Amino acid sequence: MAISVNLLTFAYSKYIFIMKTEITTLEDLKSALIKAGQCQTNETPDMELIHSIAKALLNRFCIVKGNETYRFAEIEFYHNKYDPKDGNRKTYRRVLSEGKWFFHSSGVDITFASDETKYGGILIRTIMTEDGKKFVCGPQNVVCELFDAFDAIEPLQNFPHIEIYKHPTDEEPINLTRYNFDDQMLGFCLPQHYWENCKDKQGKFNPLYPWYVGKNELKSKRKPAKTV
């Protein structure tokens, strides 16, 4: 009986955890970004939480800029727990609350709740227009697409912000290593079929995409891409 009760308790706890980490609203997203900021280290990332955030961003949220809606297509998670004794910083330092745009020399992040010793965020590597016909690939290209031209004198209008996507999907993201980093599986992108029509006039893929084309076959550029 004790074993059965323990198993039941474990299953119930797991169910409650899943319910709590399902992210469907902007408030849920902010709460998850706070939690990510509280528990982040490069050694032991909370992969269940990271997966929950990634799946939510890729399926249920979008970036709205004026009349244009962009979907998240590829993102990467970066976090750091700073030890002043060794001075080791593995990502860009920031002291910001959760859910802010953070610009740096590589692109733009959505911040975790961050302070002097624990900080991080989500790098946006690729976005696509709602119709799926245009992909903007590479973090700096994303910045140029979203933050290209705003009035320097008058109050800002049409500034990019995150909203709940009106046409949510329920796709399992592809989990892969970060660009130029093979240490951890902290990159996520939309499933392969979204990318199949994203070729240039010569029928080749942008080299910044998380996929490249062999003869007629999409293959991962990074260490083993798998479905989470």
The best one-word shape is globular
The sequence of SSEs as H and E is: HHHEEEEEEHEEEEEE
The helix count comes to: 4
The Cα radius of gyration reads 19 Å
Report the uncertain regions.
7-19, 212-218, 224-228
Distance between the termini: 34 Å
Question: How much strand?
Answer: 25-35%
Structural class: alpha+beta
Which sheet architecture does the biggest sheet show? 10 strands, antiparallel
Describe this protein's structure.
This protein has 228 residues and is α+β, with helices and mostly antiparallel strands. The chain is built from 4 helices and 12 strands. It has helices at residues 2-21, 26-39, 47-60, 139-146, and strands at residues 61-65, 68-81, 101-104, 107-111, 118-129, 135-137, 161-164, 174-176, 187-189, 211-213, 218-220, 226-227. Strands 1, 2, 3, 4, 5, 6, 7, 8, 9 and 12 form a 10-stranded antiparallel β-sheet that branches. The protein has a two-stranded antiparallel sheet with strand order 10-11. A hairpin with a 4-residue loop joins strand 10 and strand 11 (218-220). Helix 2 packs antiparallel against helix 3 (47-60). The longest helix is centred in the N-terminal third of the chain and has 20 residues, at 2-21. The model is unreliable at 7-19, 212-218 and 224-228 (pLDDT under 50).
